Amino acid sequence: MNAWLYIGVFVALSLFFPALLAVAGYLLGPRRPNPVKTDTYECGLETVGETWVQFKVQYYLFALVFLIFDVELVFLYPWAVAYNSLPIYAVFEGVLFIVMLAAALVYAWRKGALEWA
């Protein structure tokens, strides 16, 4: 039961300190709003032309596919480092994971998520 007490104290402190800092920033922070401070910040430049421009969803799909495969590569790295000491079923599981990645890549390719237009 003693170990659970440490975990409870750690959870309580991890919730208390960020809340304390947020409240302290709100209470102690300066409050001098003006039109320049409350204006929308767009990289410091005034917009030229139409402000609301629609972007192609394909850019987001491309970034999302990249992120997914990048994170999955992080899962493959420990497997590759410990490859020589793994039992045979772990090697088959790693190969199955790579095959699933390849299938997902083929699926994304056929759906056109990788085409940069």
Question: Would you kindly provide a written description of the structure presented here, covering whatever features stand out?
Answer:
The chain has 117 residues and is mostly helical. The protein has helices at residues 2-28, 57-81, 88-111. The protein has a single domain (2-111), classed as Methane Monooxygenase Hydroxylase, Chain G, domain 1 (Up-down Bundle). The protein contains 3 helices and no strands. Helix 2 (57-81) packs antiparallel against helix 3 (88-111).
End-to-end C-alpha gap: 59 Å
| Element order: H for helix, E for strand | HHH
Query: Which CATH class is shown?
Result: Mainly Alpha
Task: Determine the number of helices (DSSP H or I, runs of at least 4 residues).
Answer: 3
Instruction: Summarize the biggest pleated sheet.
Output: none
Hey, roughly how much beta strand do the residues contain? under 5%
Percent helix, as a range, is 55-70%
Mean pLDDT: 85
Number of domains: 1
How many beta-strand elements?
A: 0
Principal-axes geometry comes out as flat
Task: Kindly name the structural category.
Answer: mainly alpha
The CATH architecture: Up-down Bundle
Low-confidence stretches: none
- Return the CATH topology: Methane Monooxygenase Hydroxylase, Chain G, domain 1
- Gyration radius (Cα, Å) is 25 Å
